[in-house]
Amino acid sequence: MPVNLKAPVAQDLAPVAGIRIGVTEAGVRKANRKDVTVFLLDEGSHVAGVFTKNRFCAAPVQICREHLASHSQSIRAIVINTGNANAGTGADGLARAHATCDALAGLLKINAQQVLPFSTGVIMEPLPVDRITAGLPAAIADAQPGHWAKAAEGIMTTDTLPKAFSASATVAGKTVQVTGISKGAGMIRPNMATMLSFLGTDAAISPELMPALAKTLADQSFNRITIDGDTSTNDSFVVVATNQAGNAPITDWNTADGQALMAALREVAQKLAQAIVRDGEGATKFIQIEVEQGRTEEECRLVAYAIAHSPLVKTAFFASDPNLGRILAAVGYAGIDDLDQTQIELYLDDVHVATKGGRNPSYQEADGQRVMKQQEIVVRVQLGRGSASTQLWTCDLSHDYVSINADYRS
Amino acid sequence: MPVNLKAPVAQDLAPVAGIRIGVTEAGVRKANRKDVTVFLLDEGSHVAGVFTKNRFCAAPVQICREHLASHSQSIRAIVINTGNANAGTGADGLARAHATCDALAGLLKINAQQVLPFSTGVIMEPLPVDRITAGLPAAIADAQPGHWAKAAEGIMTTDTLPKAFSASATVAGKTVQVTGISKGAGMIRPNMATMLSFLGTDAAISPELMPALAKTLADQSFNRITIDGDTSTNDSFVVVATNQAGNAPITDWNTADGQALMAALREVAQKLAQAIVRDGEGATKFIQIEVEQGRTEEECRLVAYAIAHSPLVKTAFFASDPNLGRILAAVGYAGIDDLDQTQIELYLDDVHVATKGGRNPSYQEADGQRVMKQQEIVVRVQLGRGSASTQLWTCDLSHDYVSINADYRS
C-alpha cells in the first residue's frame, strides 16, 4: 500500500498549452493495457532531459541523448512504451528504437531526430517494435491536452498508482502552468524497471537555461530519492517548455519571475519524486533524511545515502524499532574519513535521541518508539563540521519488498 | 540455516604453542552464556590487527589501536566480551574499557597497555564492567591451549554456529600451526554486532612483517565478504605469532618458507571469513563473485560490491531466478565512468549467459535456472578492459533477513 498517496483526479491536472497527449493499448507485452503514450509538442517547444548514469543504459536513452544534443529546440514528439525496456539489447536494440522514431516521424511528417523515445519494462528482450508502431496511429488520434492523468496511467509498469501533479505560478502578470507525471521507483518487478518523469510548462524560458534546468530540478527531486540503491538502465527525466504562456522569456532564475516559476517547477518535480518513494516496492513508511552541518553538500549526501541504503536501518523502520545504533553506525561508515563522532547529534522528528555521538541522557525510548510508529518520519543528523546540508527521501525495507523482488518474473 | 557449514570439532583444532584460552559465564547481558573469553599470550608473542573503518568505532577499538601502536611486541592478553559492544558510549565507554584492561592486567601482573580489549553486542548501552571484571578470575583459571572451540563459542552473539579452523605448514623443516576463530557477519540482531576474528600461529615471524601481515590477510579474506554492506563499529581482526615453533623467523614472504606459511594463514583466514557469510543472517546461498579483466583491482572491487550489495540481485538469488538484467545493471552503475557495455561477458558457474553486453544467443534459461538453484554459485563478470581481477563472497537476501532484523531488540 502506498504511503499517503492517492491517484490523481484528471480535473485537478492543468493542461499545458502546446502539449497534447495520446495513449493506446498496443499489446507490447500484455493485452488490454495502456502501454504506448505519445506527447505531441507544438513548434517552438524546447526540451531538456537528464538520464541514467548507468553505463548499461538502454538504447532509447542513447538515442534521446543524441537527439537532444542536436534538436533540443525542435523536438516535436515523445513516445513511451511500457512492457519492454529495450536495454541490454545491443545494436539490434538501437535499430529498433530508431525504427520507432522513424515510424512516428513518418506519421507526423517530422524528422526522426525530432522524436524522443522511452521504454520501460523487461530487459534483454527484443523490443516488439512492430506492435508499437502499429499502435502509433491510435495514440496520435487520441491526443488531447487534457490527457495527463491518462498518460500517468499509460506509463505505469508495476506502480500501484499513477502519479501526476500540477502547479501554477504568476510570471510577469501571466499565469503559467506546470504539470508532470512520473512512474516507478528504482528497479521494479518483473525485472527491473525505471524511473520516468515528464514535466511540461507553457512558460516561456530562454532556451539556454533549459539544459541546466533539467539538471537543477532533478538534483532537487529525483536525485534525492532512493528505494534500494539500484539505478536503472532507463531512468529519464524530461522537461518541456512550450513557450505559449505569453510571458517574457525567463532569462535569469534570480528574479522574482524566475523564482516564482522555479518554485512551481520544483514543487511538481518534488511531489512526483516523493510519489515514487511513497509507492516504493513494499513501502510502509515515508522517510525524510536531513543531514546538516556538513562541510560540503557532497559529504552530507554521502551520510544521507548511507542511512537511506542501510538494510539494517530500513528494516528497523519497517519494525518501528528506534534502533539508533544502526543510524549512527551508518553515519560512521558513510565515508567521511575525518568525521568526529563526538560532534554528532541525531533527531527523530522532534525527539533528540543522540548527542555528542552518544545517547542523549534525557532521551526516553518511548519517545523514539512513538516517532518510529508514524507513517512519515524525519531523521535529522547534525555533523557539527560546517554549514552545508542536504535532504533525501526513502522508504523502509519490508517483507513485501523481498516477496515482490523474489517472485519469479511473470 | 547456515550454507554448508558445520560446528568445529574440538579435536580438529590444533593448539598453538604460547596461547592459552579461557572462557567463562560472566552474565554480561544474559545468564548462562559463555560471554567472556581471554587469550593469554606467552612472552615473545607479536600481535597485529586491523580494525573497522567506521568513524563511530567503539571504545575498545580505539584502545586496541593505541595499545598496538606502542606494545605490539609485548601484548600478553586479549579479553573479549559479548552482550555489549561498548560503542556510541563516549568518554564513559573509554573509561570502562580501560577499567577492563586494568583489572586483567592486575590479575596477570602485567601493564594495562599489554591488554587488548574487544566487545560485541548491543550498542549505546553502558558496558557492565563490574560483571566482566568479576568474571576474569574464572576465565583465567579456565585457560588451556586446547580451548579454541570453546572460544569460538564464547565470542558468538547471534551466530548460529561457532566458527574455527586450523591449518599447518612446514617451515624450514618445522611444522607450524595456524588456528583461528571468527564470529558474526556484518551487523546482527539484537542491535548490530560485529565481525571479530582472532588468528594464532606458533610460527616465528619477524615483527616488522606483522602489521602488514594483518592487512594482507584481511584484504584476502574479511575484506572480501559482505552480507548487507553495513560496517560495524567494532569489526576487528587480530593475528598473534607466538614465535615458539622453532623455525628461523620469516623475514620475507617471497621465499618457499614464507609462501608455505602464508598459504596456511590465508587458508584459515579465508575459511573463517567465508564461514561468516555461510552463517549470514537469513542466508540460503553462498555466492562467489569474480570480476576479471578490469584495468585495476579497485574497479573490479567496485563492480563486485555493486553486485553483492544490490538488493535486487540478492533477492533474485534467494528466488533462484536467473535474472541477468539485475546483475548487468549493477555492473553498469558500479561507478566505472567509461565502462563499455559491449565488452561485458557474464557467466553463472559454467553457463555463459551474456556476451558483448547482451544475452548470449546460445544461452538457455533452463541452464541459468539450474545454476541458480544451487546452494553455491559463482558469478563471473569479464569487463574486457584489462588484466586485473578480484573476488568476494556474499549471500542472498531472504525473508529471514528481514525477519531477523525487523524483530524488536530482545
From TrEMBL, chains A, B:
InterPro entries: Arg_biosynth_ArgJ, ArgJ-like_dom_sf, ArgJ_beta_C. The record marks T120, G121 as: Involved in the stabilization of negative charge on the oxyanion by the formation of the oxyanion hole. GO terms for molecular function: L-glutamate N-acetyltransferase activity; L-glutamate N-acetyltransferase activity, acting on acetyl-L-ornithine as donor. It is found in: Cytoplasm. Gene3D superfamilies: ArgJ beta chain, C-terminal domain, L-amino peptidase D-ALA esterase/amidase. GO terms for cellular component: cytoplasm. Substrate binds at T157, K183, T194, E281, N405, S410. The record marks A193, T194 as: Cleavage. SUPFAM superfamilies: DmpA/ArgJ-like (SSF56266). Its main location: cytoplasm. The active site is at T194. It catalyses: L-glutamate + acetyl-CoA = N-acetyl-L-glutamate + CoA + H(+); N(2)-acetyl-L-ornithine + L-glutamate = N-acetyl-L-glutamate + L-ornithine. It is an enzyme of class 2 (transferase). Pathway: Amino-acid biosynthesis; L-arginine biosynthesis; L-ornithine and N-acetyl-L-glutamate from L-glutamate and N(2)-acetyl-L-ornithine (cyclic): step 1/1; Amino-acid biosynthesis; L-arginine biosynthesis; N(2)-acetyl-L-ornithine from L-glutamate: step 1/4. The keyword Transferase applies. It holds the Pfam family ArgJ. Its EC number is 2.3.1.35, 2.3.1.1. PANTHER family: ARGININE BIOSYNTHESIS BIFUNCTIONAL PROTEIN ARGJ, ARGININE BIOSYNTHESIS BIFUNCTIONAL PROTEIN ARGJ, MITOCHONDRIAL. Belongs to the ArgJ family. Heterotetramer of two alpha and two beta chains. Catalyzes two activities which are involved in the cyclic version of arginine biosynthesis: the synthesis of N-acetylglutamate from glutamate and acetyl-CoA as the acetyl donor, and of ornithine by transacetylation between N(2)-acetylornithine and glutamate. This is Arginine biosynthesis bifunctional protein ArgJ. It comes from Comamonas koreensis. The lineage of its organism: Bacteria, Pseudomonadati, Pseudomonadota, Betaproteobacteria, Burkholderiales.
